[in-house]
Amino acid sequence: FRSPEDHTQVLRMLAKRHLELTALRTQAACRLHAVILQLRPGGIAQRLSASKTTRLLQGMRTLDTVGEQRRSMARIHLGDIRRYDREIKANKVLISKEVATTGTTVTDVYGVGSVVAAFLIGYTGDPSRFASADHYAAYNGTAPIEVSSGGKKRHRLSMRGNRKLNHAIHMAAVTQIRHDTPGRIYYDKKMAEGKTKKEALRALKRRISNAVHQRLLTDRQ
Fold first, then answer.
1. Cβ(213)–Cβ(199) under 8 Å?
2. Is the pLDDT of residue 113 over 80?
3. SS3 (DSSP) at 149
């Protein structure tokens, strides 16, 4: 038997591992790109997959000693990327299993898959510690900050709060906007009211924050 606190701790660890692995993969991809630029002045026209990069490296002829060493380094970076891809995939499997074990309903919110759910559950902790949806929004940074001037009221994104939670909610919001969803309708409505894209996105994120908070509370109860 696992308590809700156990699930929270496990998902937080898995979510943190996901961040670490994706950061390492990005670093390896940047290193590979830098070496490719040295091997092929002018860079590359399109985004290269691992298989295309392998063919590119194999197709390079008449390289001098320095060029051969650069190609060797590129292959090392490519190997790192493939290894991180495997580890990311394996970690996602663990996340999916753990999220399923919790029986959470937060994945019913459109745009919240297993990985996003892991961040929401893992970094929220006990949702009942937040007195209201407003308190939760303040904690995750979706509550806007007023920056009025000259008699005109404006709001900006809050940089306070838990940024990992904020990013998870942001990913859900972007997914909703990209598809035919009530979230997209709400976003378009805000745009029609004269809101900027950032303001409309911020409003949608707050709406999702409220839905997430309610789901997590229901799950605990």
1. no
2. yes
3. strand
